[in-house]
Amino acid sequence: MTRIYTDEIINAVCLHMAERKGVKPQDVEVQLSWEEQYGFTAEVWVNGRSQYLIESNLLEAIEQYMYTEYNQRVFRSNIKLDADEEFFADITE
Predict the structure, then answer these.
(1) What is the DSSP letter of 32?
(2) By its UniProt entry, which InterPro entries does this protein fall under (predicted)?
(3) β-pairing, 49-53 with 39-46?
(4) How far apart are CA 51 and CA 75, in angstroms?
(5) What are the DSSP calls for 15-49, one per residue?
(6) pTM of this prediction?
(7) In whole angstroms, what is the distance from residue 43 CA to residue 54 CA?
(8) Residue 27, exposed/middle/buried by CB under 10 A (0-12, 13-18, 19+)?
(9) Other CB atoms closer than 10 Å to residue 34's CB: what's the count?
(10) CA distance linking residue 54 with residue 51, whole number of Å
(11) What Å distances lie between residue 65 and 8, 47, 48, 71, 73, CA to CA?
């Protein structure tokens, strides 16, 4: 099992959104959150515009991040998001 924490989850979302929007990763800001009603979400700012991502978007970003950064092919069903003092994702093989 691999565990990635808040910083890497944010990096995953930044890289994912930068690729989708055609901007540099440093031009993307991300704030992760968890709410009982909505689960895990992220508010993302690109070029001054705000967008909300739902959990499936976060899982997609983590999938791609694991492949590009760790050369590991993982599927959404193998990723479990959780939070205690910080956000983390447990990834099983």
Answers:
(1) E
(2) Uncharacterised_YxcD
(3) antiparallel
(4) 24
(5) HHHHHHHTS-GGGEEEEEEEETTTEEEEEEEETTE
(6) 0.94
(7) 9
(8) middle
(9) 13
(10) 10
(11) 9, 22, 24, 9, 10
CA 15 to chain centre: 9
Give me the helices (H) in the chain, please.
6-21, 55-70
The residue ranges of every structural domain in the chain are: 2-91
The predicted-structure confidence for 21-45, as pLDDT tens digits, reads as follows 999 999 999 999 999 999 999 999 9
> How many residues are present in the chain?
93
Six token digits for residue 52: 């909300």
